[in-house]
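Pipeline run #58 for the internal structure catalog. This entry was flagged by the ingest filter as a single-chain record with no existing model, so it goes straight to prediction. Upstream metadata was stripped on purpose; only the residue string is passed forward. Reviewer on rotation: M.T. Logging verbosity set to normal.
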Amino acid sequence: MKERTPVYLSLTLSVAALGYAAWVHHQGSEVLAMRALKQREAELVRHWTPKVAEMLAGLGLETNAYLEPPTTLEDLFDPVVAVMNGFGGEIPPETNSVPK
């Protein structure tokens, strides 16, 4: 029985090391993916900001629609959403629900 103890101990340590390596690999890939998505979003915002500002100016709005440069797609399109809501008038939430 004494001869088998090191074998079982090394097998347990190997399985634990493989599990830890898989966990670290999984955590790292999520972080890298989120970083890549944020970088791509920033590129899209930089590319589309002049075009959206030009579109807002074409609708007769002030060209200074952004108080500070947008950093996310939501910040970029908030003035456009506000304009679209203003065209048809705001619908109160209670009238927008489905009747029961």
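catalog note: Helices lie at 5-58, 73-88.
catalog note: The chain has one domain: 5-88.
status: ready for reviewer M.T.
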